[in-house]
Write a structure and sequence with these properties.
The structure holds 2 protein chains of 2 kinds.
Chain A: H1 2-15, E1 19-23, H2 39-43, E2 48-50, H3 55-67, E3 71-75, H4 86-93, H5 96-99, E4 109-114, H6 129-133, E5 139-141, H7 146-158, E6 163-168, E7 193-196, E8 201-205, H8 209-221, E9 227-231, E10 234-236, H9 240-250, E11 253-260, H10 265-277, E12 286-290, H11 301-304, H12 308-317, H13 320-323
Parallel strand pairs in A: 1-2, 1-3, 3-4, 4-6, 5-6, 8-9, 8-11, 11-12
Antiparallel strand pairs in A: 5-10, 7-9
Chain B: H1 44-69, H2 83-91, E1 98-100, H3 106-111, H4 116-119, H5 121-124, H6 133-136, H7 148-161, E2 168-173, H8 180-192, E3 196-202, E4 205-206, E5 209-210, H9 224-227, E6 231-235, H10 239-254, E7 260-265, H11 284-291, H12 295-305, H13 311-332, H14 353-371
Parallel strand pairs in B: 1-2, 2-3, 3-7, 6-7
Antiparallel strand pairs in B: 4-5
Helix pairs in contact in B: 1-2, 1-12, 1-13, 2-10, 7-8
The chains are: A alpha/beta, B alpha/beta.
Bound molecules: thiamine diphosphate.
Thiamine diphosphate (TPP) binds next to strand 4 of chain B.
Chain lengths: 324, 372
């Protein structure tokens, strides 16, 4: 996936001289995850820039660059280190178009490696999507597959609006379905996709939890459940159509994500589904999420992250009538 | 073990920067021109231009303040007493340059040529930014403190990459210098040698908090040396001094010399805004002392003393200011026409399905309201 992301940036930079990559260690080192590897060499340090260590400064400078017609692609080194840039994000990036009535669009991409499961020490494993989702004016996108990593990042860079591009850290090294020479397509932002068709319940998920849900769906077959897995891909805008179409067919739904459940994306998604599909539902929409705690130390993270068993437990609870 | 003692290391390893701090340090006495010998060399036309702008600016401030009392403005942070640095900031810039004002700097935007009504849309409450920033080269007035400073750096940097000799001038208050964005912006600008001029208007207070509770630095201009850029202290009420020091910094930036930090030492004559009670935190005597150092009077005294300003010239300036004020009053007295559907127009380039649904809801509400 890291390679696909890198190629997306390289292709965008080659096609459009206004695309600039910037962040901490993105130049000579190629980023701590090597996602920007080679870009500084190929396009020069003016287009792939090692900035001073200052997240607010990086994003604030990107705002000014966007004002002058550039398309900055900002790398935040880790999820929890993007927080110093929050003020620029919520006070300026997200609302500049709106407050200037369209005169100053903000075609900025903020790439944030997010989520756990890589054995990182504290501040290296947060799932910060709920904060971004709660900020109108931002698009929030997260790929779960290698082709989507390319396709969605191309779309994000081409977007005239700011896009928070959440990169699931533990999928950086996944290789499936893609080679650097494979034909690459741009994937429009805002469309969910059915990753696995099924008829007895829908798993609604995104990013790092997609492979977990696909595995759970395979395991559930033995128990007589034919699960549909919907990869949301874009949290803002939200694809109500694809989601509701699936849930109306299956009549049951579980939302699965890593970030804390309370105040998390699952609550919003469950509410939307309930509001739109109430008469089709055989059971309440359930949530499987990380516990409501600060991200645990790496030796305990497997107990925190929603795994296949927890998803299957939820699926079992979908037999609501039998239960109550 | 010191660096020198490390085997094979030199006193100045390659990664260690060497900059002589002396030329970066500000003269601890704020730079003044008016009333000194140096004033004799000043250009007459420039002085008169500054005078007109000051008179105009003062009138704009009193008119905008009056509009708050009539409920025509939601709020107005007056820059009365600070007009010299406000108008100098606008006048030193070329058309292609950019101004990055804070919420107090409406006057700088007006002095740059922005229609006063457009400049006041934010404070009037009819929309956030009433003008096209790109067309005017004036960034939206920034309310979160110091957050506009990194924008100025980014824009200046982008301009330089494009090969344009554009300068960005960014304004901030004394309180704003304590914010992290101030630090990050100065550091970025210096490292990138971005063509930016930072203008701190030290008007004594951040709402109620005096400078001494804001910083322990010798002066705000002294902060520059830590970033590796020159710092300059100026009498912010001396329009000629402000113009000189700002012009010099703009020239330096334009010719590749990098950023400058300028501290204008001035005073906020009015309260923080019309909603504030300044008697709670400062004595009348202090305000009176500053009244004797009023920027308009200072320049007037100089011009009159040198026989450059007669009654006629003075009346002309006053009249021009009066007609601006009358026009502003007249146009602000009409209720702006607002279309509620505009709420949804510019959240994203194209509305999301969610916003489309919500705009339909509002449309239905409006139709129901109209039918009632
Ligand atoms: C980030 C932020 N914190 C707090 C405020 C509230 N606030 C508005 S003006 C002000 C004082 C600013 O003082 P100063 O920077 O000296 O500028 P002045 O108003 O004196 O021009 C404060 C605290 C704000 N606008 N932004």
């Amino acid at each position: 996936m890291a390679q696909a992301l890198q190629r997306a940036m390289r292709d965008a930079m080659a096609e459009d001289p206004t695309v600039h990559v910037m962040g901490e260690d993105v130049g000579t080192l190629g980023g701590v995850f090597r996602v920007t590897d080679g870009l500084a060499k190929e396009f020069g340090e003016d287009r792939c820039t090692d900035t001073p260590l200052a997240e607010a400064g990086i994003l604030g400078a990107a705002v000014g660059m966007a004002m002058y017609g550039l398309r900055p692609v900002v790398e935040m080194q880790f999820d929890a280190f993007a927080y110093p840039a929050f003020e620029q994000l919520v006070s300026h990036v997200s609302r500049m178009r709106n407050r200037t009535r369209g005169a100053l669009p903000m075609p900025i991409v903020v790439r944030v490696p997010y989520g756990g499961g890589i054995g990182g020490v504290e501040h290296h494993s947060d799932s910060s999507e709920a904060y971004y989702m709660a900020t109108p004016g931002l698009h929030v996108v997260t790929p779960a597959t290698v082709p989507d990593a390319y396709g969605l990042l191309r779309a994000a860079i081409a977007s005239d609006d700011p896009v928070i591009f959440l990169e699931p850290k533990r999928l950086y090294w996944s290789k499936a379905e893609w080679s650097p020479d494979a034909p690459a397509t741009v994937e429009p932002i805002g469309r969910a996709v059915v990753r696995r068709a099924g008829s007895s319940a829908t798993l609604l998920t995104y990013g790092p939890s997609v492979p977990v849900c696909l595995e759970a769906a395979e395991a559930a077959r033995d128990e007589g459940w034919d699960l549909e897995v919907v990869d949301l891909r874009s949290l803002v805008p939200f694809d109500d159509a694809t989601v509701c179409d699936s849930v109306r067919r299956t009549g049951r739904a579980v939302v699965v994500h890593e970030s804390a459940g309370f105040g998390g994306p699952g609550g919003e998604i469950a509410a939307r589904v309930t509001e739109r599909c109430f008469h089709y539902l055989e059971a309440p929409v359930l949530r499987v999420a990380g516990f409501d705690l600060p991200y645990p130390p790496p030796m305990l993270e497997r107990h925190h992250l929603p795994g296949v068993d927890r998803v299957l437990d939820a699926v079992a609870r979908l037999q609501w009538e039998a239960q109550s | 073990m010191t660096v020198q003692e490390l085997p094979g290391a030199t006193a100045y390893p390659a990664w260690r920067l060497r900059t002589d701090p002396a030329p970066l340090l500000p003269d601890p006495e704020p730079y003044r021109v008016l009333g000194t010998e140096a004033a004799a060399g000043l250009d007459r036309e420039l002085l008169l231009r500054l005078y007109d702008a000051l008179v105009h600016g003062r009138r704009f401030n009193t008119q905008a303040t009056a509009l708050t009392k009539q409920g025509r403005l939601a709020v107005y942070p007056s820059s009365t007493g600070q007009e010299a640095s406000e108008v100098a900031a606008a006048l030193v810039l070329e058309e292609r340059d950019w101004l990055f004002p804070s919420y107090r700097d409406t006057l700088a935007a007006v002095a740059r040529g922005l229609d006063p009504v457009e400049a006041l849309t934010l404070l009037r409450g009819d929309w956030h930014t009433g003008y096209d920033p790109r067309e005017r080269r004036i960034a939206p007035l920034s309310t979160p403190l110091a957050t506009q400073l990194p924008h100025a750096v980014g824009l200046a940097h982008a301009a330089r990459l494009a090969g344009d000799d554009v300068v960005a001038l960014a304004m901030v208050g004394d309180g704003g210098t304590s914010e992290g964005d101030f630090h990050e912006a100065l550091n970025f600008a210096a490292v990138w040698r971005a063509p930016v001029v930072f203008l701190v208007q030290n008007n004594g207070f951040a709402i109620s908090v005096p400078l001494a509770k804001q910083t322990a630095a010798p002066s705000l201009a002294h902060k520059a040396v830590g970033y590796g850029m020159p710092g300059r202290l100026v009498d912010g009420n001396d329009a000629a001094a402000m113009h000189q020091v700002l012009s010099e910094a703009v020239r330096r930036a334009r010719t590749g010399g990098g950023p400058t930090l300028i501290e204008a030492v001035t005073y906020r004559m009015d309260a923080h805004t019309n909603a504030d009670d300044a008697t709670r935190y400062r004595a009348d005597a202090e305000v009176e002392a500053w009244r004797a150092h009023d920027p308009v009077r200072l320049l007037e005294r100089e011009l009159t003393g040198r026989g450059l300003l007669d009654e006629e010239r003075r009346d002309a300036a006053t009249e021009a200011a009066e007609s601006m004020a009358a026009d502003l009053r007249g146009r602000m007295n009409a209720d702006p026409l607002l279309d509620p559907m505009d709420l949804f127009a510019q959240v994203y380039a194209a509305p999301t399905p969610q916003l489309r649904e919500q705009s339909e809801q509002l449309r239905a509400e409006l139709e129901a309201e109209a039918g009632r």
